[in-house]
Amino acid sequence: MAERSTTRRTLLIRGAAAFGAFSLSGCDRIIQSKFAHKAFANVDALNRTTQEAILDQAALAPEYTRDDLSQLFYANGSTDPDDADYKKMVGERFASYKLVVDGLVEHPQQLSLAELRALPTRTQITRHDCVEGWSCIGEWTGTPLAGVLDRAVLKSAARYVLFHCFDTMDDGDLSGPTPFYGSIDLAAARHPQTILAYEMNGEPLPVKYGAPLRVRVERQLGYKMTKYIKRIELVDDFSKFGKGKGGYWEDNGYQWYAGI
Ligand SMILES: Nc1nc2c(c(=O)[nH]1)N[C@H]1C(S)=C(S)[C@@H](COP(=O)(O)O)O[C@H]1N2
Ligand SMILES: [Mo]
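Above are the sequence and the molybdenum atom SMILES. Below is the predicted complex in structure-token form.
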């Protein structure tokens, strides 16, 4: 499948077409988050303030048991990046992978997968809700992002965590491939369920789901769960990245704050 070159329209069509398959795949339509969504559909800044006021950002997302795991977890957006540097890393099973943490930090980091695995571990079984209307339950193992930020020691000006990725998106226009990126604020970054996941369902994170490292931001929608992370940059402002809205999907119309 040419997952990389999908436009929003084809994604939406595919999302709708895929609905029928979910009862078979073990994934389901979003139920709980529907109200929050509809109610705050359009306005961005207002949306964010309102949602932050109404939703308790510190509350934990529900956790499930292994019996609840979706038999088939739907994959969305990039699922097989064909970017040259990424392909090379897949070929060597990410042996030379180093997560870079830099920007507004006192101690920039370069962490291999072995080093990330040696940090405190957290496993959680949670429900992933995609804005297109499907949900799947998966088990994620990784290290809390808060601990990684603490190692790097944030400068006081740091306000957002920006994720730079290996994958690029082809929007079908003449501007060429757009690097995928995403961002969250420090409250989301320090939430106890926000982890840099290197395992899914007890196995090393498959390419489809964001190998070698993706973030889980369990109180927000699927498009905030950035996959294929190569660099984490601490910034005071994200307006100078991409088209300025804080992420690839946000640049294409989705809201920056996607609380559920
Ligand atoms: N790097 C990257 N991260 C991404 C995307 C993407 O295309 N590229 N798609 C997002 C969307 S819209 C969703 S719903 C989830 C899908 O994660 P999954 O493939 O594990 O289901 O990843 C999110 N993170
Ligand atoms: Mo999504």
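The helical segments are 8-25, 34-39, 44-54, 84-91, 113-118, 145-152, 186-189, 248-251.
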